[in-house]
Design goal:
The complex is a heterodimer of chains A (about 110) and B (about 120). With about 110 residues, chain A is mainly α. Chain A is about 75% helix and about 0% strand. In chain A, about 35% of the residues are buried. Helix content of chain B is about 70%, strand content about 0%. The chains are: A mainly alpha (about 110), B mainly alpha (about 120). The interface between A and B is medium-sized, with 19 and 30 residues.
Chain lengths: ~110, ~120
């Protein structure tokens, strides 16, 4: 794949992906065929800051986990009062990292 | 950091309203009961034999009691005989919940239970 295209993608999404995975991601994307570019570009990545804001206001209802795609955990959080409040509080610290990991998992199937 | 979080949380929930402690973040932040409020009391009623009263207090008692009964043997079986069983079941649940209509149905039911809780001042 074109170096410029890959670098633009990495720059545009560096805040949405785990920083320690960026070099590996760049290397795999450079080895990929151009026809996979459309599939990669069409993946909608979730903004970690938005997830944090949602976690602050609606974390008790599991909306933050539902927002990042962790449906089961979101429902479980809803059914346990945000894990009696403790899980909701802990997720304030974990949700940004979890969002970046989920975004990375969305791209993994296309990296080969 | 974990210890700091627990201490901070205990300070935040240290309300004594008639001897009870409020742990629900929804109640603390917005004064609204969430769909899970009352499940502990409903579960206690259930195990005391008052099933109708338990269901009227919070219908989610069905899920709570199912979890209490099923989870320990599943956990033991997962540990002893079939590692990864709980993870496999969780992944199956995720796939089931990825069906939008099922997810929206479940969320609609939980919303109704939340409204019910607030109407009954739980």
């Amino acid at each position: 794949m074109d170096v410029q295209k890959v670098d633009m993608f990495i720059m545009a999404n560096s805040a949405n992906l785990p920083s320690e995975r960026l070099p590996f991601l760049r290397e795999r994307m450079l080895q990929m065929d151009d026809d996979k570019w459309g599939m990669i570009a069409s993946q909608s990545l979730v903004n970690p800051t938005t997830a944090l804001i949602i976690s602050f206001f609606l974390g008790a209802f599991g909306v933050d986990r539902l927002y990042i795609g962790d449906t089961g955990l979101g429902i479980l959080k809803l059914l346990t009062c945000g894990g009696v409040g403790l899980w909701a509080l802990i997720d304030l610290f974990l949700i940004m990292g979890a969002t970046k990991d989920k975004n990375y998992e969305k791209l993994l199937p296309y990296l080969g | 950091m974990g210890y700091a979080i627990v201490v901070l949380w205990l300070l935040l929930v240290h309300h004594h309203e008639g001897g009870s402690v409020v742990v629900c973040p929804s109640k603390l932040l917005y004064g609204l009961s969430c769909p899970a409020c009352g499940v502990t009391r409903a579960t206690l009623l259930f195990f005391h034999g008052d099933i109708i009263a338990a269901l009227r207090l919070n219908p989610n008692v069905v899920l709570a009691v199912s979890g209490i009964i099923l989870f320990p043997p599943l956990m033991i079986y997962d540990r002893c005989c079939r590692p990864g069983l709980l993870l496999m079941l969780y992944n199956k649940l995720e796939r089931l919940l990825s069906i939008k209509i099922l997810l929206f149905l479940l969320l609609a039911v939980e919303f109704c239970i939340g409204v019910w809780n607030n109407l009954h001042h739980l």
